[in-house]
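Take a look at my tokenised protein here and describe the backbone shape.
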Amino acid sequence: MVSLNALEAHLWEAANILRGPVDAADFKTYIFPMLFFKRISDVFDEELRVALEESDGDQQFALFPENHRFQVPAGSHWEEVRSVVTNIGQALQKSLRAIEQANPETLFGIFGDANWTNKERLSDTTLRNLLEHFSALDLSNANVNSDVLGQAYEYLIKKFADLTNKKAGEFYTPRSVVRLMVDILDPKEGETIYDPACGTGGMLLGAVQHVREADRDIKLLYGKIYGQEKNLTTSAIARINLFLHGIEDFKVRRGDTLRGPAFFDGDQLAQFHCVIANPPFSLEQWGAEQWASDPFGRNKTGVPSESSADFAWVQHMLTSMLPGVGRMAVVVPHGVLFRMGVEGRIRQRILETDTLEAVIGLAPNLFYGAGLAACILIFRAHKAPDRLGKVLLIDAGQQFKKLRAQNVLLPEHGEQILAWYHAYTDVEGIARVVTQAEIAANDYNLNITRYVERIVTAETLTVEAAMSNLRESLKAAYAAEDRLKTLLTEAGLR
């Protein structure tokens, strides 16, 4: 069995093969399909061997579709592409499309739209090196189980997010934030889970992991996991992600959720137990004109302006909650809490439904490409009796660890925030349970600083420490002055 560390290192080295001709932001477009292609081929061979053993070498029986999770048509296997000498990209592209067509219910479009035949970007030499690199690893189930492969895949998603930073916010939510949101919603086996802006599938997988860690049967989630993602490459990555984690039955659709939602119950929007998302912040040109006559009733509390879709996402998710038992967690920019005008009116109407349970303000610079602080809104279709007419506001802005590139929410930070949420009580300088009447008196402004005053502690220094700091500062100043004199002398100015 290959170890997780060895697999991670090998996958990262595959990305390094593309450096130069391929921009770092496009690594995922090529590496993930190659990984999945290799996995499918190796597992197909493994299944073939088992079927041959069971049938005393009956080749025809071994190729029956019933013996394989996915079909790999003749001429489309990894080893067959590997044997090609020239025009490798053309052979690769043909094979990937053939596999998609042979598995229309599960794999249609899963390899994305990468242009494998562009020799200026992907020469035969580059593709040969990539194929040989992946060929060094056996990715069969016997050698790499789905848990290890899934973890390595998530590692690679995170590494690509680190590389692209600003662009990464489009497809990646820090997993510590995902963990916090999922723990608050507490999905159970047999419940439905929906992410209308699923990116690479991190929140859907977070829900599955939550169920697994509670020693519940994740197979009872099969057929109950739903996601929609507008970007073709990202939606394909999400599907691969779920497959590689061993999730066999799910529905991830490509499409624009606000303009064309994918899931229905009759002529109504489908509704789910857990609705969770980190949609794009303040999306412009999102379809407000169409929303004004939305046939699904998502505009009951108003139509947001074309310049920001934040409340359109919130409204879509509220409409997607199951009555009585549904709950929802969504990441939004802080402006959603206090912006006035049409957003203020929508916020008021949503608050008057008494479904908003909590607002959690997070630290700045936790999300890729978004230096400003964000917050999490928690809704429940039916709040506990002792929480009716109330909203818990938590200032968790100091819960983070500062790293060179960005801040991170460590597990202990998430656990602390979760504890404050469950306690649902006042914590000086951190949290307040605010009544609807008080919020109304503040013009339905939910800016956390209006209700929670952070405790500011002045750092005290001993006289000795203060004198030491002064001496160090003077030393630095004298050194700078001496350096300036030297430079002036060298320039003939003194």
